[in-house]
Protein backbone atom coordinates (compact mmCIF):
# COMPACT_ATOMS: atom_id res chain seq x y z
CA UNK A 1 0.00 0.00 0.00
CA UNK A 2 2.74 2.44 0.93
CA UNK A 3 4.44 1.91 -2.42
CA UNK A 4 1.19 2.53 -4.29
CA UNK A 5 0.79 5.83 -2.43
CA UNK A 6 4.40 6.72 -3.26
CA UNK A 7 3.81 6.06 -6.99
CA UNK A 8 0.72 8.26 -6.90
CA UNK A 9 2.86 11.03 -5.38
CA UNK A 10 5.56 10.66 -8.04
CA UNK A 11 2.88 10.77 -10.71
CA UNK A 12 1.45 13.99 -9.26
CA UNK A 13 4.92 15.50 -8.89
CA UNK A 14 5.53 14.87 -12.59
CA UNK A 15 2.19 16.36 -13.64
CA UNK A 16 2.75 19.56 -11.63
CA UNK A 17 6.29 20.10 -12.95
CA UNK A 18 5.38 19.12 -16.54
CA UNK A 19 2.60 21.71 -16.60
CA UNK A 20 4.97 24.54 -15.53
CA UNK A 21 5.53 27.44 -17.96
CA UNK A 22 9.13 26.35 -18.65
CA UNK A 23 8.03 22.85 -19.72
CA UNK A 24 4.56 22.42 -21.29
CA UNK A 25 3.06 25.73 -20.11
CA UNK A 26 -0.39 24.22 -19.59
CA UNK A 27 -3.14 26.28 -17.97
CA UNK A 28 -5.58 23.43 -17.56
CA UNK A 29 -5.47 19.72 -16.76
CA UNK A 30 -8.68 17.70 -17.02
CA UNK A 31 -10.60 20.98 -17.22
CA UNK A 32 -9.18 22.37 -13.94
CA UNK A 33 -6.55 25.11 -13.55
CA UNK A 34 -3.06 23.67 -13.21
CA UNK A 35 -1.21 24.00 -9.89
CA UNK A 36 0.86 27.02 -10.92
CA UNK A 37 -2.20 28.76 -12.39
CA UNK A 38 -4.04 28.37 -9.10
CA UNK A 39 -1.23 28.76 -6.54
CA UNK A 40 1.55 30.55 -8.39
CA UNK A 41 4.78 29.45 -10.02
CA UNK A 42 7.04 29.19 -6.96
CA UNK A 43 4.44 27.26 -4.97
CA UNK A 44 3.95 24.79 -7.82
CA UNK A 45 7.70 24.25 -8.09
CA UNK A 46 8.02 23.56 -4.36
CA UNK A 47 4.83 21.48 -4.26
CA UNK A 48 6.35 19.23 -6.93
CA UNK A 49 9.66 19.03 -5.06
CA UNK A 50 7.81 18.22 -1.88
CA UNK A 51 5.70 15.47 -3.48
CA UNK A 52 8.80 13.82 -4.97
CA UNK A 53 10.50 13.89 -1.59
CA UNK A 54 7.38 12.83 0.34
CA UNK A 55 7.12 9.73 -1.83
CA UNK A 56 10.44 8.65 -0.35
CA UNK A 57 9.26 9.59 3.12
CA UNK A 58 6.37 7.16 2.71
CA UNK A 59 8.76 4.44 1.53
CA UNK A 60 11.20 5.09 4.38
CA UNK A 61 8.39 4.89 6.94
CA UNK A 62 7.37 1.55 5.43
CA UNK A 63 10.96 0.27 5.58
CA UNK A 64 11.40 1.46 9.17
CA UNK A 65 8.22 -0.28 10.19
CA UNK A 66 9.18 -3.39 8.32
CA UNK A 67 12.69 -3.56 9.81
CA UNK A 68 11.39 -3.24 13.35
CA UNK A 69 8.31 -5.38 13.21
CA UNK A 70 6.75 -8.65 12.25
CA UNK A 71 7.06 -8.08 8.48
CA UNK A 72 10.82 -8.29 8.83
CA UNK A 73 11.19 -11.03 6.24
CA UNK A 74 9.91 -8.81 3.48
CA UNK A 75 12.38 -5.97 4.16
CA UNK A 76 14.73 -7.23 1.48
CA UNK A 77 11.97 -7.16 -1.17
CA UNK A 78 10.94 -3.70 -0.03
CA UNK A 79 14.52 -2.43 -0.36
CA UNK A 80 14.61 -3.84 -3.88
CA UNK A 81 11.30 -2.14 -4.68
CA UNK A 82 12.72 1.13 -3.28
CA UNK A 83 15.77 0.75 -5.51
CA UNK A 84 13.67 0.13 -8.63
CA UNK A 85 11.46 3.05 -7.65
CA UNK A 86 14.40 5.48 -7.75
CA UNK A 87 15.54 4.15 -11.12
CA UNK A 88 12.10 4.36 -12.75
CA UNK A 89 11.66 7.93 -11.50
CA UNK A 90 15.06 8.81 -12.88
CA UNK A 91 14.09 7.41 -16.28
CA UNK A 92 10.85 9.39 -16.18
CA UNK A 93 12.81 12.63 -15.61
CA UNK A 94 15.28 11.73 -18.39
CA UNK A 95 12.36 11.09 -20.77
CA UNK A 96 10.83 14.43 -19.84
CA UNK A 97 14.17 16.13 -20.43
CA UNK A 98 14.58 14.60 -23.92
CA UNK A 99 10.98 15.38 -24.81
CA UNK A 100 11.47 19.04 -23.81
CA UNK A 101 14.88 19.34 -25.41
CA UNK A 102 13.81 17.82 -28.74
CA UNK A 103 10.43 19.55 -29.02
CA UNK A 104 9.67 20.78 -32.53
CA UNK A 105 12.64 18.85 -33.95
CA UNK A 106 12.38 15.94 -36.37
CA UNK A 107 13.35 12.81 -34.47
CA UNK A 108 13.74 9.18 -35.50
CA UNK A 109 11.14 6.54 -34.68
CA UNK A 110 13.71 4.97 -32.35
CA UNK A 111 14.12 8.22 -30.40
CA UNK A 112 10.35 8.67 -30.22
CA UNK A 113 10.05 5.20 -28.71
CA UNK A 114 12.99 5.78 -26.37
CA UNK A 115 11.37 8.94 -25.02
CA UNK A 116 8.03 7.25 -24.42
CA UNK A 117 9.54 4.13 -22.89
CA UNK A 118 11.20 6.40 -20.33
CA UNK A 119 8.75 9.26 -19.91
CA UNK A 120 5.52 7.28 -19.50
CA UNK A 121 6.57 3.64 -19.72
CA UNK A 122 9.01 3.54 -16.80
CA UNK A 123 6.41 4.33 -14.15
CA UNK A 124 3.89 1.92 -15.62
CA UNK A 125 6.51 -0.82 -15.69
CA UNK A 126 7.45 0.02 -12.11
CA UNK A 127 3.84 -0.48 -10.98
CA UNK A 128 3.76 -3.97 -12.46
CA UNK A 129 7.26 -4.98 -11.31
CA UNK A 130 6.77 -3.63 -7.82
CA UNK A 131 3.62 -5.69 -7.32
CA UNK A 132 5.54 -8.79 -8.37
CA UNK A 133 8.62 -7.99 -6.27
CA UNK A 134 6.66 -7.20 -3.11
CA UNK A 135 4.61 -10.37 -3.54
CA UNK A 136 7.88 -12.31 -3.62
CA UNK A 137 7.36 -14.00 -7.01
CA UNK A 138 10.15 -15.68 -8.98
CA UNK A 139 12.60 -13.78 -11.20
CA UNK A 140 11.04 -15.50 -14.20
CA UNK A 141 7.61 -14.12 -13.34
CA UNK A 142 9.02 -10.66 -12.74
CA UNK A 143 10.65 -10.73 -16.18
CA UNK A 144 7.53 -12.05 -17.89
CA UNK A 145 5.36 -9.38 -16.28
CA UNK A 146 7.93 -6.76 -17.31
CA UNK A 147 7.41 -7.69 -20.96
CA UNK A 148 3.65 -7.30 -20.45
CA UNK A 149 4.30 -3.88 -18.83
CA UNK A 150 6.50 -2.72 -21.73
CA UNK A 151 3.77 -3.68 -24.17
CA UNK A 152 0.94 -1.85 -22.42
CA UNK A 153 3.21 1.19 -21.90
CA UNK A 154 3.82 1.35 -25.64
CA UNK A 155 0.11 0.73 -26.34
CA UNK A 156 -0.84 3.55 -23.99
CA UNK A 157 1.24 6.00 -26.00
CA UNK A 158 -0.01 4.80 -29.39
CA UNK A 159 -3.59 5.17 -28.14
CA UNK A 160 -2.76 8.67 -26.88
CA UNK A 161 -1.59 9.66 -30.34
CA UNK A 162 -4.69 8.13 -31.96
CA UNK A 163 -6.96 10.05 -29.57
CA UNK A 164 -5.09 13.26 -30.36
CA UNK A 165 -5.94 12.70 -34.00
CA UNK A 166 -9.55 11.53 -33.84
CA UNK A 167 -10.72 11.61 -30.22
CA UNK A 168 -13.81 13.50 -29.09
CA UNK A 169 -12.44 16.78 -27.65
CA UNK A 170 -15.37 16.93 -25.22
CA UNK A 171 -14.24 13.62 -23.71
CA UNK A 172 -10.44 13.88 -24.08
CA UNK A 173 -10.36 17.56 -23.05
CA UNK A 174 -7.79 18.18 -25.80
CA UNK A 175 -8.27 19.83 -29.20
CA UNK A 176 -8.27 17.41 -32.16
CA UNK A 177 -5.30 17.48 -34.52
CA UNK A 178 -3.21 19.50 -32.08
CA UNK A 179 -0.18 17.24 -32.48
CA UNK A 180 -0.30 17.54 -36.27
CA UNK A 181 -0.50 21.33 -36.10
CA UNK A 182 2.47 21.48 -33.77
CA UNK A 183 4.40 19.25 -36.15
CA UNK A 184 4.88 16.71 -33.37
CA UNK A 185 6.41 13.30 -34.10
CA UNK A 186 3.79 10.74 -33.07
CA UNK A 187 2.89 7.15 -33.91
CA UNK A 188 0.19 8.53 -36.19
CA UNK A 189 2.67 10.71 -38.07
CA UNK A 190 4.91 7.66 -38.54
CA UNK A 191 2.38 4.90 -39.25
CA UNK A 192 -0.64 6.90 -40.42
CA UNK A 193 -3.96 6.62 -38.52
CA UNK A 194 -4.85 3.14 -39.79
CA UNK A 195 -1.29 1.89 -39.37
CA UNK A 196 -1.23 3.14 -35.77
CA UNK A 197 -4.49 1.32 -35.05
CA UNK A 198 -3.08 -1.92 -36.45
CA UNK A 199 0.07 -1.44 -34.38
CA UNK A 200 -2.06 -0.92 -31.28
CA UNK A 201 -4.00 -4.14 -31.94
CA UNK A 202 -0.75 -6.04 -32.41
CA UNK A 203 0.93 -4.71 -29.26
CA UNK A 204 -2.15 -5.36 -27.09
CA UNK A 205 -2.40 -8.91 -28.42
CA UNK A 206 1.28 -9.48 -27.55
CA UNK A 207 0.70 -8.10 -24.04
CA UNK A 208 -2.24 -10.43 -23.46
CA UNK A 209 -0.37 -13.42 -24.91
CA UNK A 210 2.37 -12.88 -22.32
CA UNK A 211 -0.18 -13.54 -19.58
CA UNK A 212 -1.42 -16.86 -20.99
CA UNK A 213 0.47 -18.99 -18.48
CA UNK A 214 -1.33 -17.34 -15.53
CA UNK A 215 -4.80 -18.28 -16.82
CA UNK A 216 -7.67 -16.63 -14.91
CA UNK A 217 -5.34 -15.25 -12.20
CA UNK A 218 -4.22 -12.57 -14.67
CA UNK A 219 -7.74 -11.43 -15.55
CA UNK A 220 -7.20 -7.97 -14.06
CA UNK A 221 -4.07 -7.40 -16.14
CA UNK A 222 -5.87 -8.67 -19.24
CA UNK A 223 -8.74 -6.25 -18.66
CA UNK A 224 -6.26 -3.43 -18.07
CA UNK A 225 -4.69 -4.07 -21.48
CA UNK A 226 -8.12 -4.04 -23.14
CA UNK A 227 -9.03 -0.86 -21.29
CA UNK A 228 -5.89 0.86 -22.61
CA UNK A 229 -6.84 -0.12 -26.16
CA UNK A 230 -10.45 1.01 -25.89
CA UNK A 231 -10.29 4.07 -23.65
CA UNK A 232 -11.81 7.24 -25.10
CA UNK A 233 -9.90 9.66 -22.88
CA UNK B 1 30.00 7.67 2.40
CA UNK B 2 26.89 7.08 0.31
CA UNK B 3 24.85 9.22 2.68
CA UNK B 4 27.38 12.06 2.46
CA UNK B 5 27.10 11.96 -1.33
CA UNK B 6 23.31 11.98 -1.04
CA UNK B 7 23.39 15.07 1.19
CA UNK B 8 25.65 16.84 -1.28
CA UNK B 9 23.11 16.05 -4.00
CA UNK B 10 20.20 17.38 -1.93
CA UNK B 11 22.21 20.51 -1.23
CA UNK B 12 22.85 21.04 -4.94
CA UNK B 13 19.22 20.34 -5.80
CA UNK B 14 18.16 23.07 -3.36
CA UNK B 15 20.67 25.59 -4.74
CA UNK B 16 19.56 25.04 -8.35
CA UNK B 17 15.85 25.35 -7.53
CA UNK B 18 16.34 28.28 -5.14
CA UNK B 19 18.17 30.25 -7.83
CA UNK B 20 15.31 29.82 -10.35
CA UNK B 21 13.49 32.94 -11.56
CA UNK B 22 10.31 32.03 -9.66
CA UNK B 23 12.18 31.81 -6.34
CA UNK B 24 15.30 34.01 -5.83
CA UNK B 25 15.92 34.82 -9.50
CA UNK B 26 19.71 34.77 -9.06
CA UNK B 27 21.94 35.04 -12.11
CA UNK B 28 25.17 34.21 -10.29
CA UNK B 29 26.31 31.92 -7.48
CA UNK B 30 29.86 32.25 -6.18
CA UNK B 31 30.64 34.35 -9.24
CA UNK B 32 29.51 31.72 -11.76
CA UNK B 33 26.30 31.76 -13.84
CA UNK B 34 23.51 29.84 -12.13
CA UNK B 35 22.27 26.60 -13.68
CA UNK B 36 19.24 28.12 -15.42
CA UNK B 37 21.35 31.01 -16.76
CA UNK B 38 23.76 28.57 -18.32
CA UNK B 39 21.49 25.71 -19.41
CA UNK B 40 18.02 27.24 -19.55
CA UNK B 41 15.00 27.22 -17.26
CA UNK B 42 13.52 23.82 -18.10
CA UNK B 43 16.88 22.05 -17.86
CA UNK B 44 17.57 23.60 -14.44
CA UNK B 45 14.16 22.51 -13.21
CA UNK B 46 14.72 18.93 -14.35
CA UNK B 47 18.36 18.89 -13.17
CA UNK B 48 17.13 19.80 -9.68
CA UNK B 49 14.41 17.14 -9.83
CA UNK B 50 16.95 14.62 -11.00
CA UNK B 51 19.45 15.44 -8.23
CA UNK B 52 16.77 15.13 -5.56
CA UNK B 53 15.77 11.76 -6.94
CA UNK B 54 19.35 10.58 -7.51
CA UNK B 55 20.12 11.21 -3.85
CA UNK B 56 17.58 8.52 -3.05
CA UNK B 57 19.02 6.28 -5.73
CA UNK B 58 22.39 6.45 -3.95
CA UNK B 59 20.73 5.62 -0.63
CA UNK B 60 18.77 2.74 -2.13
CA UNK B 61 21.92 1.28 -3.68
CA UNK B 62 23.58 1.47 -0.28
CA UNK B 63 20.62 -0.23 1.38
CA UNK B 64 20.50 -2.95 -1.28
CA UNK B 65 24.18 -3.63 -0.83
CA UNK B 66 23.87 -3.61 2.91
CA UNK B 67 20.89 -5.97 2.96
CA UNK B 68 22.64 -8.50 0.76
CA UNK B 69 26.15 -8.38 2.13
CA UNK B 70 28.38 -8.48 5.13
CA UNK B 71 27.28 -5.09 6.49
CA UNK B 72 23.87 -6.59 7.17
CA UNK B 73 23.87 -5.62 10.84
CA UNK B 74 23.92 -1.96 10.04
CA UNK B 75 20.90 -2.08 7.71
CA UNK B 76 18.58 -1.00 10.50
CA UNK B 77 20.67 2.13 11.21
CA UNK B 78 20.81 2.90 7.51
CA UNK B 79 17.04 2.64 7.21
CA UNK B 80 16.73 5.05 10.14
CA UNK B 81 19.20 7.44 8.47
CA UNK B 82 17.16 7.19 5.24
CA UNK B 83 14.01 8.04 7.19
CA UNK B 84 15.60 11.08 8.84
CA UNK B 85 16.97 12.12 5.46
CA UNK B 86 13.48 12.35 3.95
CA UNK B 87 12.21 14.36 6.93
CA UNK B 88 15.09 16.85 6.90
CA UNK B 89 14.66 17.40 3.16
CA UNK B 90 10.95 17.95 3.70
CA UNK B 91 11.69 20.57 6.35
CA UNK B 92 14.14 22.29 4.02
CA UNK B 93 11.46 22.56 1.32
CA UNK B 94 8.91 23.84 3.87
CA UNK B 95 11.43 26.47 5.06
CA UNK B 96 12.03 27.56 1.47
CA UNK B 97 8.28 27.78 0.90
CA UNK B 98 7.72 30.00 3.95
CA UNK B 99 10.70 32.16 3.08
CA UNK B 100 9.36 32.70 -0.46
CA UNK B 101 5.77 33.18 0.66
CA UNK B 102 6.62 35.73 3.38
CA UNK B 103 9.22 37.69 1.44
CA UNK B 104 8.95 41.44 1.96
CA UNK B 105 6.48 40.97 4.82
CA UNK B 106 7.16 41.90 8.45
CA UNK B 107 7.50 38.66 10.38
CA UNK B 108 8.01 37.87 14.06
CA UNK B 109 11.38 36.82 15.47
CA UNK B 110 9.86 33.41 16.14
CA UNK B 111 8.86 33.00 12.49
CA UNK B 112 12.31 34.16 11.36
CA UNK B 113 13.88 31.47 13.53
CA UNK B 114 11.37 28.85 12.43
CA UNK B 115 12.19 29.52 8.79
CA UNK B 116 15.95 29.27 9.35
CA UNK B 117 15.72 26.19 11.55
CA UNK B 118 13.97 24.48 8.65
CA UNK B 119 15.50 26.06 5.56
CA UNK B 120 19.17 25.81 6.50
CA UNK B 121 19.23 24.17 9.93
CA UNK B 122 17.50 20.91 9.03
CA UNK B 123 20.18 19.73 6.61
CA UNK B 124 23.01 20.71 8.93
CA UNK B 125 21.32 18.85 11.78
CA UNK B 126 20.84 15.86 9.51
CA UNK B 127 24.60 15.75 8.75
CA UNK B 128 25.42 15.57 12.45
CA UNK B 129 22.66 13.13 13.40
CA UNK B 130 23.34 10.86 10.46
CA UNK B 131 26.97 10.48 11.45
CA UNK B 132 25.91 9.51 14.94
CA UNK B 133 23.16 7.14 13.78
CA UNK B 134 25.32 5.33 11.23
CA UNK B 135 28.11 4.98 13.80
CA UNK B 136 25.61 3.26 16.08
CA UNK B 137 25.97 5.62 19.09
CA UNK B 138 23.50 5.77 21.96
CA UNK B 139 20.24 7.74 21.83
CA UNK B 140 21.66 10.06 24.48
CA UNK B 141 24.64 10.92 22.27
CA UNK B 142 22.39 11.43 19.25
CA UNK B 143 20.27 13.88 21.26
CA UNK B 144 23.30 15.71 22.65
CA UNK B 145 24.83 16.11 19.20
CA UNK B 146 21.45 17.30 17.91
CA UNK B 147 21.58 20.20 20.39
CA UNK B 148 25.05 21.05 19.12
CA UNK B 149 23.74 20.91 15.53
CA UNK B 150 20.81 23.21 16.31
CA UNK B 151 23.22 25.73 17.83
CA UNK B 152 25.63 25.82 14.92
CA UNK B 153 22.72 25.98 12.48
CA UNK B 154 21.43 29.09 14.26
CA UNK B 155 24.96 30.53 14.46
CA UNK B 156 25.43 29.98 10.73
CA UNK B 157 22.40 32.13 9.97
CA UNK B 158 23.32 34.90 12.44
CA UNK B 159 26.79 35.05 10.88
CA UNK B 160 25.20 35.19 7.42
CA UNK B 161 23.19 38.23 8.45
CA UNK B 162 26.26 39.91 9.99
CA UNK B 163 28.25 39.34 6.79
CA UNK B 164 25.40 40.80 4.75
CA UNK B 165 25.72 43.94 6.86
CA UNK B 166 29.47 44.39 7.15
CA UNK B 167 31.21 41.66 5.11
CA UNK B 168 33.75 42.41 2.41
CA UNK B 169 31.77 42.16 -0.85
CA UNK B 170 34.90 41.03 -2.67
CA UNK B 171 35.10 38.01 -0.37
CA UNK B 172 31.40 37.29 0.25
CA UNK B 173 30.43 37.94 -3.38
CA UNK B 174 27.31 39.78 -2.14
CA UNK B 175 26.65 43.54 -2.01
CA UNK B 176 26.84 45.05 1.51
CA UNK B 177 23.62 46.23 3.14
CA UNK B 178 21.50 44.37 0.59
CA UNK B 179 19.23 42.83 3.24
CA UNK B 180 18.56 46.25 4.79
CA UNK B 181 17.68 47.77 1.43
CA UNK B 182 15.27 44.93 0.68
CA UNK B 183 13.66 45.47 4.10
CA UNK B 184 14.49 41.86 5.00
CA UNK B 185 13.93 40.61 8.55
CA UNK B 186 17.33 39.41 9.79
CA UNK B 187 19.08 38.89 13.11
CA UNK B 188 20.80 42.24 12.56
CA UNK B 189 17.49 44.03 12.04
CA UNK B 190 16.20 42.48 15.27
CA UNK B 191 19.25 42.67 17.54
CA UNK B 192 21.29 45.44 15.87
CA UNK B 193 24.81 44.67 14.60
CA UNK B 194 26.46 44.54 18.04
CA UNK B 195 23.56 42.61 19.53
CA UNK B 196 23.78 40.03 16.73
CA UNK B 197 27.52 39.61 17.37
CA UNK B 198 26.89 39.01 21.08
CA UNK B 199 24.16 36.52 20.21
CA UNK B 200 26.58 34.72 17.88
CA UNK B 201 29.24 34.48 20.63
CA UNK B 202 26.67 33.13 23.05
CA UNK B 203 25.27 30.50 20.68
CA UNK B 204 28.74 29.28 19.64
CA UNK B 205 29.78 28.98 23.29
CA UNK B 206 26.66 26.92 24.00
CA UNK B 207 27.42 24.67 21.03
CA UNK B 208 30.98 24.05 22.24
CA UNK B 209 29.84 23.49 25.83
CA UNK B 210 27.58 20.69 24.60
CA UNK B 211 30.66 18.81 23.39
CA UNK B 212 32.56 18.99 26.69
CA UNK B 213 31.85 15.39 27.66
CA UNK B 214 33.58 14.10 24.47
CA UNK B 215 36.90 15.83 25.29
CA UNK B 216 39.45 15.72 22.44
CA UNK B 217 37.33 13.31 20.37
CA UNK B 218 35.04 16.21 19.46
CA UNK B 219 37.85 18.47 18.28
CA UNK B 220 36.60 18.51 14.68
CA UNK B 221 33.11 19.58 15.75
CA UNK B 222 34.62 22.27 18.03
CA UNK B 223 36.70 23.65 15.17
CA UNK B 224 33.65 23.58 12.90
CA UNK B 225 31.75 25.77 15.39
CA UNK B 226 34.66 28.24 15.55
CA UNK B 227 34.90 28.25 11.76
CA UNK B 228 31.22 29.16 11.49
CA UNK B 229 31.75 32.09 13.87
CA UNK B 230 34.85 33.41 12.14
CA UNK B 231 34.20 32.73 8.46
CA UNK B 232 34.43 35.76 6.21
CA UNK B 233 32.32 34.32 3.38
The helix/strand series of chain A, from N terminus to C terminus, equals HEEHHHHHHHHH
Report strand % of chain A.
under 5%
Helix content of chain A: over 70%
Discrete helix count of chain A: 10
Strand order of the largest sheet of chain A: 1-2
The biggest beta sheet of chain A is recorded as: 2 strands, antiparallel
* SSE class of chain A: mainly alpha
- Name the shape of chain A in a single word: globular
Quaternary state reads: homodimer
Biggest interface and residues each = A-B, 42 and 41 residues
Instruction: Please give the radius of gyration of chain A in angstroms.
Output: 19 Å
State the distance separating the first and last CA atoms of chain A.
27 Å
* Unreliable residue stretches of chain A: none
pLDDT averaged over residues of chain A: 91
Structure summary, number of beta strands of chain A: 2
